[in-house]
Design a protein that fits this description.
Blueprint (H helix, E strand, L loop, with lengths): L13 E5 L2 E4 L4 E6 L5 H7 L3 H9 L1 E5 L12 E7 L5 H13 E7 L1 H5 L11 H9 L24 E3 L6 H12 L11 H7 L45 H10 L4 H21 L4
């Protein structure tokens, strides 16, 4: 996760403050962008409904293809929200341009943060993947498809909001914090702790389900375990995940750690590959 350090956080148009609340000369400009993804994060933003009116009333959304056919692609931005992984040179070019014109760049969703579903097999030969899906004949045999990668492989990311899709409440909290001159605090604990706070029955210990909650970053309010569905790790691995302890529990339940690794790879394979390269299992 990347955050602007407070001394370096420059809020465009900042005039004066009363307490922690920022007062603006002009409404700050914001851009919302989608790369390779399902646009799920943009749908979450549009589904904020009543809160969206307050948000749009406080800022100028000047560049948002999902919400308007008339966009300003050149103005300086206070905040750029980018969803999706980078899977094509033109997406990399767009991302670099957005980075240059924005003060704060936020990766929205697990595709932007970690690479997402499109990157779960990024280290396999691309030609072999295409052959398995499309066969040896036909136009697909000549396709040159680069591996998908997270935004941080190309540009500096100031803040990451993980999730597939992102949580509405977390998005609104982050935007409110930034527009009031604060640095958002993101959860540094696993989904497992959110289950305990909600007094959920532990699906791993009591039901023997292969739940990734102990090693997955929190922030979803234990959404899936609250409905008796094992966590699949869509928010990516929590920092300093205790994989050794989880492995012991899984062995007791007759599961293997690879079961959890496969879940996490579905959304964050590039991150896990880098950890493995550094000797972290």
């Amino acid at each position: 996760m990347y955050l602007y350090p407070w001394p370096g956080l420059y809020l465009l148009g900042r005039n004066q403050s009363s307490g922690n609340r920022v007062r603006w000369h002009v409404r700050p400009k914001i851009g919302i962008y989608g790369l390779s993804g399902c646009w799920g994060e943009q749908i979450v933003i549009l589904n904020c409904e009543d809160q969206l009116l307050d948000l749009f009333g406080a800022v100028d959304i000047v560049d948002f293809l999902g919400g308007s056919s008339v966009n300003d692609t050149e103005s300086r931005l206070l905040i750029a929200l980018v969803e999706g992984s980078v899977g094509h040179p033109r997406e990399e070019a767009l991302l670099r341009k957005v980075r240059e014109r924005s003060d704060i760049l936020i990766a929205c969703g697990s595709c932007a943060c970690f690479g997402g579903v499109a990157a779960m097999d990024a280290r396999s030969p691309r030609a072999e993947i295409i052959r398995q899906v499309y066969g040896n004949n036909g136009p697909a045999a000549s396709w040159d498809i680069p591996p998908h990668k997270p935004l941080s492989d190309f540009v500096k990311v100031d803040l990451a909001i993980p999730g597939c899709p992102i949580e509405k409440e977390e998005f609104l909290r982050v935007m409110s914090s930034l527009l009031n001159g604060d640095v958002p605090v993101m959860p540094a604990y696993p989904v497992c702790l959110e289950c305990k706070m909600k007094e959920n029955e532990c699906l791993l210990l009591t039901r023997g389900l292969p739940c990734a909650g102990p090693v997955t970053a929190a922030g979803c309010g234990a959404r899936c375990p609250s409905y008796n569905i094992a966590c699949i790790g869509c928010r990516g691995p929590v920092e300093e995940a205790n994989m050794a302890s989880l492995e012991r529990i899984l062995e007791q339940k007759k599961f293997e750690l690879d079961e959890i690794r496969r879940k996490l790879r579905l959304f964050a394979a590039p991150v896990l590959d880098k950890l493995q390269d550094r000797g972290v299992q």
